[in-house]
Structure formats: C-alpha cells, structure tokens
Design a protein that fits this description.
The chain is mainly β and 117 residues long. It is 14% helix and 47% strand. The protein has a single domain, classed as Sandwich (Immunoglobulin-like).
Length: 117
C-alpha cells in the first residue's frame, strides 16, 4: 500500500514539474537578410563601428548579440565597440524576426590592439 502511494506521488511530481519549452519561431520564407555590413573592419580596440542589416519582410524586428564586446542601440543599425580584452576575431549575430518566423546572420569583425600596430 505504501509503495502504491509512493508511486502515485512520484508520478504526480513528475507530471507537474515537467514543462514544455516554447518552440523557437520557425524559419520564415518571407524574411530575407540581404546584407550585414560594418563601417570599419578591422577595428582598433576602443574604437566603434556601425553595423547595418538590410532585410526584407513585413513587420520586422531585430535582435543583436556579440560573443565579445558591446552592442549599443537597436533596430537596423547598431554601434559595436570592443576593448583591448576583445582583441581577435569577434562574431556579431543579427536575428531578424516577425510573427511568422525568423532568420539570422553573422558578421566577423577583427579587433586589433590599440597599443600595437
């Protein structure tokens, strides 16, 4: 009898503790990233560059992410800056999405030392 209660209690805990994760938006045929460009590449540490995404689709929104350095702003054009600790090849990802799906693209920006040529 105690074993049955333990079994029921365990199953109830598992049932209510598992939650379904929301699926990411599927790729969308109506969104296209045509270009992802920066005004400076390579970039010296402590300098900034503007990164622009050119995309087509309806009701577009934009998300930006960098593996090193900082992104300032939002929308189609953002400012990217990286310090001396970010010297090397850095990846910036732009995600373009709407109610029906999303696409993303990356640009690599080489950050060189401010102190060394």
């Amino acid at each position: 009898m105690k074993l049955e209660y333990l079994f029921v209690l365990t199953n109830l805990l598992l049932l209510f503790s598992c939650s379904k994760k929301e699926d990411p938006l599927p790729p969308s045929g109506d969104i296209t990233i045509e270009a992802l460009t920066s005004t400076l590449n390579p970039l010296k540490a402590w300098d900034t560059t503007l990164i622009t995404v050119t995309a087509t689709g309806s009701n577009l929104q934009y998300g930006w992410e960098a593996d090193h350095g900082s992104i300032v702003g939002s929308g189609q054009v953002v400012k990217y800056a990286a310090g001396e600790c970010c010297v090397g090849l850095n990846t910036i990802t732009c995600r373009v999405f709407n109610d029906t799906g999303e696409v993303s693209d990356t640009i690599k920006i080489r950050v060189t030392s401010y102190f060394w040529p």
